Structure to design on (279 residues):
């Protein structure tokens, strides 16, 4: 079995279940030739719709607008509902990709594979790759990920879980597939969307939960000095949730990780907020 986090054992293309061992996508599709595609990824438990699906839907629509695709609000829910019966009990990493085919046709590819438990904590490495806050595609979640994959590979080779990207201006941006938070100066801080980052769904709802339950938070420019002086550091995405950082290589190696006093408070607020959306 593949050890890739993108391993998929269940596939559906344009509503038809597929055998992953057989060819399914023509090599001439612009999705393969030029990386023209957008996607969403999230955790599915026991074939239930994920709790923040509407936020994933909104981001997919934004990615479509920025990348020149035509995706309507509600399409993700409709198509995902047809895919979920194909997967079983347990936790699954599900990815929905909208791919450019021939003659500008769009194709919906769903894939899912069993998801392992998220790590208890993470080590980060600052990457040499940079993001441009003025990139008009900065807010789109696209399948064109060669630079991000290379950054992640370099971080993994150095013993880190995730690569941390800076902007071309030198401030902290995001991970290759995660957003970053720091607790510093009595508040939770995360880079603003204006810094060219992807608007993570988990990031959005952590901010919402902090505002709902009285935890001071802000979106602003995050500097390397903030990483060095932070009381606690976390990364997040829709699959791993919110996990603490223990080290940022060459920056600092003594963050409290799971022992951080604010971690429990923020996680509890996030859990309560998610539960409130289901009632």
């Amino acid at each position: 079995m593949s050890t890739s986090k993108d391993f998929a054992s269940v596939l559906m293309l344009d509503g038809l279940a597929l055998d992953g061992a057989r060819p399914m996508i023509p090599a001439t599709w612009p999705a393969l030739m030029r990386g023209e595609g957008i996607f969403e990824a999230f955790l599915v438990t026991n074939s239930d719709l994920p709790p923040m699906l509407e936020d994933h839907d909104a981001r997919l629509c934004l990615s479509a607008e920025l990348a020149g695709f035509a995706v309507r609000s509600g399409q993700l829910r409709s198509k995902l509902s047809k895919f979920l019966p194909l997967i079983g009990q347990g936790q699954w990493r599900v990815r929905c990709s909208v791919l450019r085919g021939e003659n500008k046709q769009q194709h919906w590819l769903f894939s899912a594979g069993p998801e392992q438990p998220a790590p208890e904590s993470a080590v980060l490495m600052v990457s040499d790759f940079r993001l441009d806050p003025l990139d008009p595609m900065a807010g789109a979640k696209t399948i064109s990920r060669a630079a991000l994959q290379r950054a992640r590979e370099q971080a993994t080779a150095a013993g880190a879980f995730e690569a941390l990207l800076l902007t071309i201006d030198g401030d902290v941006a995001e991970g290759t597939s995660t957003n970053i938070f720091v607790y510093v100066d009595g508040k939770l801080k995360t880079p603003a969307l204006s810094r060219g980052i992807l608007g993570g769904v988990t990031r959005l709802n952590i901010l919402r939960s902090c505002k709902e339950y009285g935890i001071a938070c802000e979106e602003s420019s995050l500097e390397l000095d903030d990483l060095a002086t932070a009381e606690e550091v976390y990364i997040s995405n829709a699959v791993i949730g919110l996990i603490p950082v223990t080290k940022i290589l060459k920056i600092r190696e003594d963050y409290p990780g799971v022992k951080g006093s604010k971690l429990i408070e923020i996680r509890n607020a996030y859990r309560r907020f998610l539960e409130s959306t289901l009632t």
